[in-house]
Input
Amino acid sequence: MIDAIEVPSIDWVALLPLTSLLFGALLLLATSALVPGRLVARLAAPFTLVVCAVSLGASVFVWRRLGEGTAPFADVADAVAIDRFGVFVAAVIAMAIALSTLLAQSDRSLQRLGNIELYALFLLSGSGGVMLAMANDLVVLFLGLEILSIALYVLAGYDVRRRESREAGLKYFVLGGFASAFLLYGIALLYGATGSTNLGQIGSFLAANLPSHQGLLLAGLALLIVGLAFKVAAVPFHSWAPDVYDGSPTPVTAFMASAAKAAAFAGMLRVLFTTFPTLADQWRPVIWVLAVGSLVVGAFLAIAQDDVKRMLAYSSISQAGFILLGVEAGSSFGVSSALFYLLAYTFMVAGSFAVVAIVAGGGGRPRPADEGRVPQHRLSAFRGLSARRPTLAFGFTVLLLAQAGVPFTSGFVAKFGVLGAAVGADSYALAIVAMLTAVVSAYMYLRIVLTMYLVAPDPGAPRVSIPAMAGAGLVVAVAVTIVLGVVPGPALSLARDAVPTLLGAG
Amino acid sequence: MLSALVILPVLFAVAVALVPARHAPAARWLGVAGATLVGVLSVVVLVRFDVGDGGFQMVVDRSWISELGVSWHLGIDGISLFLVVLTGLLFPLVMAGVKPEGSAGQHDARAYTAWMLLLEAGCLGAFLALDLFVFFVMFEVVLVPMYFLIGGWGHGDSSKAATKFFLFTMTGSAFLLVGIVAVAFLNQQATGTLTFDLVTLADSQSLATTTGRWLFLAFAAAFAVKTPVFPLHTWLPDAHTQAPTAASVILAGVMLKLGTYGFLRFGIFLFPEAANYFAPLLVTLGVIGIVYAAVVATMQPDLKRLIAYSSVAHLGFIVLGLFAFTGQSVTGGVIQMVNHGVSTGVLFLIVGMIYERRHTREIAKLGGLQKSAPVMAVCFTIAMFSSIGLPGLNGFVGEFLVLIGSFSTRRWWTIVATTGVILAALYLLWAYQRVFHGTPEGDNATMPDVTRREGLVLVPLLACIVVMGIYPRPVLDRIEPAVDRLVARIDDRSPYDVPADGGTAEEQR
Amino acid sequence: MTVTDTWYLVLAALLFGIGGVGVLVRRNPLVMFMCIELMLNAANLTFVTFARALDDVGGQVVVFFVLVVAAAEVVVGLGIIVSILRRRPDATADDLNVLAG
Amino acid sequence: MELAVFLVAAAFVLVGALGVVLSRNPVHSALMLVLTLFGIAVLFVQLEAGFLAAVQVIVYAGAIVVLFLFVIMLLGVDRIEGLARDPLVAQRPAAVVVMGAVVAGILVGVDAFSSSQGAPSMTGSLSGAGSNVEKLAEVIFTRQLFAFEATSALLVIAVVGAVVLSRRGDADSVDDGAVGDDGDQAVPPAPRGVR
Amino acid sequence: MLSAVWLIPALPLCGVLVLALFGRRLGEPLAGWVATTFVAGSFVAGVVTWIGLLGHDEEHRQVVFRLFTWISVGSFSVDVGFLVDPLSITWVLFVTFVGALIHLYSISYMHGDDRFGTFFCYLNLFVFSMLVLVLGDNLVLTFLGWEGVGACSYLLISFWFQRDAAATAGKKAFVTNRIGDWGFMTAMFLLFWTLGTLTYVGGSGGGLLSASETLTTGTATAVALLLFVAAAGKSAQFPLFVWLPDAMEGPTPVSALIHAATMVTAGIYLLARLNPVLHLAPSAGDVIAVVGAFTALFAATAAVAQRDIKKVLAYSTVSQLGYMFLAIGTGAYVAAIFHTITHAFFKALLFLGAGSAIHALDGEQDMRRMGALRAVLPITATASIIGWLAIAGVPPFEGFFSKDEILAVVWQDNPGLWFVGLLTALLTAYYMSRQVFLVFFGHARWDDPAHGSRHPHESPALMTIPLIVLGGLSIVGGLINLPGVETLGHFLEPVFGERELHLTVSGASQVALAAVAVVVAVVGILIARRLYLRDPVALETGEHPSVEPELLRRAWGVDGAFSAFFGGPGRRLALAAAAFDRSVIDGAVRGTASVVQRTGQRSRVIQSGLVRRYALGIVVGAVVLMVVVAVGA
Output
């Protein structure tokens, strides 16, 4: 009576960037359960790095394959988009995981809490991000987002002994749940308006018959954007970000600011750009509002902070505003600029938080009195860093200047790109707002630089030691930041090739 | 060749930064060697420059970021030639001749030298760039080394001044960046290719009048801040006052010229119509700057601040010249950029020497220094006279050309600007009197005179002041063809009937 | 009087609204969480309503996945809440304000 | 008949929802949640989603709410929450107004729906032959196979999360009670605008 | 012979270089001798050139030597080149001659100064600049010299820079001159704009001098007046004369050379050089004549009450320069130049004499503490008496001829101005007599116990030789342009041509006018004698307060008014501008910064840390987005 269900064909290789992360996590968990002793714990970080490398390798492979004859396609019954866009973001996320792992491995207090679950959650969360980026179905998008988020709730509250970490976990969870309810409701309305959750089907439906009464459609779209904007921490959905970034263990913050942001932007870009181009006149003003809000709030609140971690949190809001410039443009140049920005920002922000972690003593000898207390993120902890740790200070300076958009760093090229996209889309006002808030932000970056270089260190300042892993991560981040600033060509052309198209239509 | 001018200092900067800490003093001399090499290169460029050619020479054009249509496009013409040479020569001089300030413990010769070299690279890059992107990159990147030099080796509340400098300039550049991007993308919409190439963009002229005017304003915002044009000048006195001597010299001598050079090379070249349209505004501001800054300068209690305001006044002359759009005035403006660099450079150097010896720049605390340091007084006097515009010294040539050229198109403003000549004498001589004249007391009486090392820095610059005042022909001959080309561009759109080769009013009747 | 789909949709919207208000006005994190569940259920009801209106299975399948998500969320969410309330049983959402500014 | 069922179920749903929000005791809230979930299950039946109705009752009412109650009891936090007034100025009216605006916005969209609709049966017909469960199963294992597999990751996370969060954080002796637990017991600090 | 012209400025320039590089090593007195030699050489070169010029016939006495192109952009081009014509060579001769004598005098006068070499370096530089001024073949080069002499004047006035008065005076001189320079520059711009050239002779359009005949009256008037502003600054005409009395703070040879004989005549030279422009602007000429006459009278009244021996001479110089401008304005260029030359001789003589007296009294400059020096300083006294008689206009001394010529021409043009001139002549005779009586006659008042015992003695030969030479010239100098013969007038004929206003009054009238002038001079002398040599109190105290009112000593308070303006409203204006810059303009910048910062601080409130507020924010955002979407649609 029941017909045999015909399982859809699956191109497993194409899914490798995603599955390698997922299986890596499972393997890690399974091994740790089966093999006793500290061996697994010791090998967990290298293993995670290997998993990231495999994922990255798979991404490269799939990228190549997509370039050589294979057109982008929708896999697993049109639920997953196999295209260079997804692969690009998958690669970014894999790199972000790797950097965060390096950072976490150097964080003693996290290590004492057990690192295996940490890395597993990184990998799982990352796989959710990749899923989000590759989603060709709103259900997959929702699931990807939830996988990403739920793992992050845990990660934010990972350091349960610390009050800040717990608070961050709860805030993120409550607000995240609240926002995903909006997202889900939006998907429901879109489903009602179009009859499908599949992006390809929605896209072709809208292309064929744009309903005269768009109320349902637009309400759904608005709520969908609410959910995604929450994840990218765009104003006015940003309010969780400073507190959660501040309270979470620093490696987790780095992960949130890089991987999670990239994934959410990927989802936003794909949905808006491929599926709803016909509604561009409606969603572009929305993104415009989000962009201006993020730029202004991010910049103005950042300068009022005394805590470097919080400064960087607000800075990440303003950077999100810049990326939204590329989204707002609604052009393929805008998309590729946003992608380049994501790539560049991943390294900038991961490196920056690495410095915060190092200075906060994540790698130093734990001082019992400090344990569990507010860590040394305050600006005063950076006083005279150039005298104490010139290389570290220099590295941080490069990363900060990159975020300020100083030439010969990836940040400049990234800003240039999104600005170009905005201007190309005639959004002059937005471009000017962006550049002026960049000046305001620059004040904040300069304040940190100033403190490191021009203020004498406190006499009793603790010795800052740079743990090998975090140091390596920092070196990579700085190097990439500079290289992308001097020879951005290759990366730009990768981003250009990664502009998505509507898949699985019909 | 030109690429080497930009890249060499960077390489040396990296090398200097990599010198081990215990050899830090050697780093300085490595840096000086690098700067000297660049200086020699710039002289080679000067020698190889084809005098009669008004176009770009020694052009380098390589693809850099093809994805964005950006190319590494460098070239030199009469307008940039002497700015490049000035940069090439000023840097080794100040690096070798000026002991970096800052307490011994804090001072790191490596960092200082490396920043200086990076600054040099940026300045040269900006002067040589023929690609808007490259120009902007260089224009913006110079802020960083300057920020560190002012902040790290400055005096007083230097970090605040450095931040003010950085942010003020960056605000201007914000508009410039939007403008540059807009020019390129509008051109792309019109022609289909995305390029930032100056010449291509200038030739295609695809902009509507109103758009061109807006974009010119965006460009002008950045350049007006950098120049600085009244009323955007207030960062300059602060920056100068707190900056270390070497940075002050470079700031006044080279970096301010990025603004006026930008006006000329990019503002006027790309938007001749808009430049014409806004010329009255800029001329007005320039002239206000001349008079206003001079008046303000008279009352400055700090010698360095006073000279900083004199810079504002001098750059007002340059702006007047550039926007009067005659061959003489623009040529005068260009040569005045160089002149101001040299003479104000000397003034700042001497103020630095005084500060090094007396630990103050407050005019009230100085006096009678001519008695204790006669050679220094002579050097100051020469530079002062140059600054005042005494004929026979270089300052006169530029100022006079600016004024005589401007007179034909901006008569009344020129007459007002000429009063700046009176005021300049007033505030400089008064300052000189208070600092050098009178009977020295206390530490002023025992202040040592110029040392040999300092003399070696001053002498070439003073020689330059005299030689360029007496025989400016070689300089003018090289500047003029390029300026003529530029002026011819504007004249096509000028409401004034000024023949390109400057016929007379009589002939016109 | 026939019950049209609109009735269901309006009901769902009201439920969503009540849930939303609940999150905003309640201070007990557990109750706030319950209110979020209300909102998810509102979405579910909408899906199922649309599924019938469109004569499409897809909507119902989505609900299935939402249930799984809700379950996972509950596990993690309650874990976090427990970790807080265990240390301070009378803590309300308003008390969590160490991180601010 | 349909009307009656709908009205009763809707009443369950709304009363339950209001009960969740208005009960001062979290235990009551949890029980009211059950009421709502039950009402929704009834509506699911009405909407030809029998399987989902069952799952709703079993999973939601059965498992999830029990978890809630378990936590409440475990922690003994079944304290009465003073609802008389909200310490946050204007929070309540603002909440009602803005949430009302959202609902109003959705209702505008819903109204519009009556005259426009999406493409029918894109995934598969609901009314065709076969049981509801069969149809669901087919979609889950074909169209939504990927999503189905993805849920596994979600469950793994839930497990790992539970493990991680349930640690007392005493992997280390320098910890909680002493310094680590940072004075949560102290008088709660007043809400601060600026730190 | 003419090709020696480049040597004229080149020799002093060599002197400058030599002294700048080796001045200290040469030391005293060698540095002085070197400098003197170079200037003397320059004089010789000048004479050679002059002889060469005489070799040309009258129409061709205008030779240009171009060395190199100085500044050239587009149509604007000026050379470094020398224009040799009667006008320039006249100046060259008396400048180098008087200059050489004063150099010589300075060797002794500056004895013992520790910046001996520097002094001569500056002096040489001055002579060089002055020669460039007069020889330059274009206005810009003239301007170079013009500014050069100004700068040297500045350096030399404030030579004793330790003295505040000297430093201030130097600055004042330069800045006041700069006001004139504004006129000079603007005149150049106007000329270039209308004529397209600034080269006097040759080049496009045949040169400035011939092309200027095409100027409209309006332009010509504007140019003439602007040039007069320039001349007024340099030649200390009202109201820009204020710097000259103060300039007496410089060493006396400087006063003699720069502030009496040469530099201050640059204004005369400039106007004479551009006489074609002046010719087209009769109303400008009137202005010049009136201002000149007024200045002459005004300064003479001020001279009456001065106590400082040099101040008397300074105001006298201003007054005499007023005569020259009166002549220029009237169109009597030759008369003006004639008076310039005679003035150079007798005023240099008077200054050097005064210097000698000051020297003898160890720097005493107050005439009230002089007197009866005739006995101890016979040569100085004799020379000064010659100078006195010359300036007073007593025949046959040279001043009589030159002043008489001016008065005659002015009578012919405007009797009103003639009367002013005559009044001035009266005052001149009076105040110069007063000076001579106070210094050389009467009682010796220098041995004031309060100031210690003094033993004045005659100056050394190096100082007296120039006195003797100049004294001789002051007697016979009138020969160069005797009425009826007019050697100078004929020599300068090619320069001015028919633009020169020639005397047309009858010979009898001329004699009558001369007689009046002589009478006036004698009356002036007699009044002075009555007041200062016949009054016992005045003999004793060296002053006669009733005829030396304070107001006149302060030159009618003009200088005070200037100082009050610059020290008062001017200073306040500058202070206000500085305050405006600090508070308003920079205040706007700082204000923006602080507003941004404060906004940031204030907005932190929204980040309250309260989850429910955040959730509310999300809902608000959702509403906003829905509205925007709806509006966008």
